[in-house]
Amino acid sequence: MASLAAALAVVTPTRMELLKLKQRVNLAQRGHDLLREKMDALIIEFFEILRRIGAARAGALKQLSLAYRALSTCSAIMGTIETLQASKEARRELEVEISTRHVMGIVVPTLEVEKVERSALDRGYSLHTTSSVLDEASREFEKALGLLIKLAELEESGRAIAKELERTKRRVNALEYILIPRLRAALKFISMRLDEMERENFTRLKRIKAMLEAET
Amino acid sequence: MSVDRVLKFELSKLNVHLPMRRISLKEAMMSARPQVAARDGSTHIFKREELDLLAKIVPEAEWEMLRLPILIALDPKLGRGAARINGEAEVRAINQILEKESAGEELLIYRPEVAVIRRKLPTTTQYLFVPG
User: Fold this and answer.
1) B4, B76, B119 member nearest A34 (Cβ)
2) A175 touches chain B (CB under 8 A)
3) Cα–Cα distance between B15 and B39 in angstroms, integer?
4) Quick one: which of A65, A55, A52 has its CA closest to A141?
5) Is the pTM of this model over 0.90?
6) Which residue in A has a C-alpha nearest to residue B35's C-alpha?
7) What is the ipTM of this complex?
8) In this structure, what CATH number is given to the domain that contains residue A121?
9) Residue A104: which residues within 8 A CB-CB, separation 6 or more?
10) What is the dihedral of CA A159, A165, A168, A170, to 10 degrees?
11) Is A85 within a domain?
């Protein structure tokens, strides 16, 4: 209330100011309506991405569980040291192409990855000294890696949309609860002040007229 | 006045994601990399599976008429949560997606329907914010 009173104290009650304020209220109202539409659209996008993140995370966790189970089986059959040795022999450089796409002006990442799954021959460990359970475990981990990359893309998109949503919500609230009420209060103040000045003027004229009539 | 300037800046940024020129479904189907250039200089790429879905539901004779991306116009005058689709072919395609029956060049849809459209056609639809 104090800030509103302070804001009103600096308002000049003139018709010019009244016109300017009306324009500012219109702009603020228009901005508020459009930003609220944007906020609603962002909420739709955000919930959609949350749904996709949930599904992707469940898929990735399931796949990781399968992969670790396969690794345990592999360690049990081949032996822990041999499995570790084979994992050290395997070489991999995975190229991930990171580009961006725009959702309503928000930059979200797009990860494009070459084929994650590869054949046992391409993995680099010796097929002669290892068991087929190692191939199975490797394949399950490669599948999990592909799902994790997809999940990372979705989570980063979700984070970017959430950030923009928060920013837009802050703007909408600032307009709705601070700027527009303040402008409307100033508008009302000027309007009432101008009415008051008009009434004062009218009374003054009446009084002058009465004085002039009394003199004649 | 700085608040007004910030507001004007925000409003000017609302539609920068829109394409400079929309392409027809036919053009998109024939292109090896279907995409449009946006006003902010970025490139908007259409997913092939969405194009295939549209190609399946829109008769081939109308491929030239359907402009992509389909614009979901959010106009504060329509009320909160309401949106408008313009264009005969676009309306027909959206009707098919929503399993609705209506004709004409304009279709009014509501928030749950917008969510369905965005879920099924995330790259071939875009929001358009209509200033009042």
Assistant:
1) B76
2) yes
3) 8
4) A65
5) no
6) A101
7) 0.87
8) 1.10.287.3240
9) A38, A41, A42, A45, A164, B17, B126, B127
10) -90
11) yes
Q: Which residues pair with A112 in a beta bridge?
A: A97
| pLDDT band at residue B70 under the 50/70/90 scheme | very high
Residues A38/A168, Cβ–Cβ less than 8 Å: yes
Contact A175 B44 (CB under 8 A): no
The closest CB to that of B118, out of A33, A48, A175, belongs to A48
Residues in chain A within 8 Å Cβ distance of B81: 40
Q: Would you say residue A204 lies in a domain?
A: no
> Dihedrals φ, ψ of B16, to 5°?
-70, -15
Cα separation of A27 and A30, whole Å?
Answer: 5
Each residue's pLDDT tens digit, A4-28? 676 666 778 889 999 999 999 999 9
Nearest by Cα to A104 from B80, B82, B18: B18
**Is residue A176 within 8 Å of A85, Cβ to Cβ?**
no
Is A24 in the B-facing interface, judged by CB distances under 8 Å?
A: yes
Query: pLDDT band at residue B14, thresholds of 50, 70 and 90?
Result: confident
Pairing of strands B70-74, B125-129: parallel
Residue type, B83: A
Determine contact: A38 vs chain B, CB below 8 A. Answer: yes
The pLDDT score that the predictor gives to residue A112 is: 78
Dihedral Cα B90, A30, A33, B89, nearest 10 deg = 0
Nearest residue to A144 via CA among A65, A60, A74, A69:
A60
- Token digits for B129? 């914010």
A10 within domain boundaries: no
Structural domain total, chain A: 1
For residue A74, give its domain range. Answer: 27-184
Residue A5 in any domain: the answer is: no
Instruction: Identify which of A24, A34, A103 has the shortest CB distance to residue B14.
Output: A34
Element (H, E) at A70: helix A15-78
Distance of CA A168 to the CA centre of its chain: 8
What is d(CA B109, CA B66) in angstroms, rounded to the nearest whole number?
Answer: 18
Cα dihedral angle (B17, B18, B20, B21), rounded to 10 degrees? Answer: 140
